[in-house]
Design a protein that fits this description.
alpha+beta, 7 helices, 6-stranded antiparallel β-sheet, Jelly Rolls
């Protein structure tokens, strides 16, 4: 039974002034704003950011602002529900398109928020994470977990663009967000772990008794390997369902980052995929193909490079437009919600 709560206007003006003078405030007029009944009332709004339209603006930023004056040359994706300049796409996820031009380097730093990068376009760039050189290729997912040193370089001939995803809003809310700078790192003289220790599924390096396992053993998840795995799984996935594979820590099987998870998706054209309502918020990045999605009744037509968002408990539907399937990576805050013990899924209405 819904209870009608008193309003601030119902209270005497002198009483309200006395409360304000003591930095006090009544809870009941705002109770339903912070504790709505049955389901959250998200501020975040779904939106699609067209890469085709954003790309010229990002390249223009490369002409206007040298990387030395930007540290990281990024155009942020801003949630329309929060207005201009908001540094988030959902309540817990920040996204930005970052540009690195041939010959440029972005200085080394580490920070409290965790980050991941999905490579959108170009070849020849790399990220060094705690001394491990991770080559950037289209669709790759590259991690820079909290407290890990990372810098970027470009040895190619064309611009390289990637999508950053960070749990920055969470750290900003906790007043725990900061970074530390350092000199560029010297890369290890060997390929990254995805090409050596963790090149084959189900196999990890042998450990002597008592030897500790790395907290973040794998920083780069190559897209070529991910797409092949999705295509293989498609033969055993019911039509009408998206083929989905979660990115996990190969040593533990847990999510790759403490507060953000990533799921690779293959969407087919014959029958739309209709996932359940999820309590997490999500950001979808299109790696390959074309299609359309509905998020809370709003339709988005997308192609490779585009990014779109879905707030908590959104009603979502995906369908590829070509005979060939489409491939996406979904970033989400399921790991954070599971740690807080409130993640849930509900049937579609």
């Amino acid at each position: 039974m819904t209870q009608s709560l008193g309003r601030l206007e119902d209270l005497p003006a002198d009483y309200v002034r006395d409360l304000e003078g003591m930095l006090l405030a009544p809870l009941w007029p705002q109770m339903r704003n912070v504790l709505p009944h049955d389901a959250p009332a998200p501020v975040s709004k779904p939106h699609l950011w067209s890469f085709q339209k954003a790309r010229p603006l990002l390249l223009r930023a490369g002409e206007l602002t040298p990387v030395e004056k930007a540290e990281r040359r990024v155009l942020m994706l801003t949630d329309p529900g929060r207005g201009k300049g908001s540094m988030q796409v959902t309540a817990s996820i920040y996204c930005g398109l970052q540009l690195l031009l041939p010959g440029e380097t972005a200085p080394a730093h580490k920070h409290t928020p965790s980050a991941a990068r999905i490579i959108v376009e170009g070849e020849g760039a790399f990220t060094i994470v705690n001394g491990e050189k991770c080559v950037m290729e289209k669709g790759d997912l590259i991690l820079t977990p909290t407290g890990c040193w990372h810098d970027h370089g470009h040895e190619g001939t064309e611009p390289v663009i990637w999508l950053d995803l960070l749990d920055l809003p969470l750290y900003a809310y906790l007043e725990g967000s900061y970074s530390v700078e350092a000199e560029l790192q010297a890369p290890a003289n060997r390929p990254d772990a995805s090409a050596v220790e963790y090149a084959q599924a189900g196999l990890v390096p042998h450990r002597k008794p008592g030897q500790a396992r790395a907290k973040y053993p794998l920083m780069r998840f190559p897209w070529k390997r991910t797409e092949a795995a999705l295509r293989g799984a498609a033969d055993h996935t019911a039509h009408g369902e998206a083929v989905e594979l979660d990115y996990v820590n190969p040593e533990t099987g847990k999510d790759v980052l403490p507060t953000m998870g990533f799921t690779a998706m293959m969407v087919r054209s014959d029958v739309p995929a209709r996932p359940p309502l999820r309590s997490c918020s999500s950001v979808f990045h299109v790696v390959k193909g074309r299609g359309r999605s509905k998020v809370n009744g709003e339709s988005f037509e997308w192609r490779a490079g585009d990014t779109f968002s879905a707030p908590v408990f959104a009603v979502v539907e995906h369908c590829a437009e070509d005979v060939e399937p489409a491939f996406l990576i979904r970033g989400h805050d399921t790991p954070l919600q599971e740690k807080l013990d409130y993640y849930e899924e509900r049937p579609r209405p």
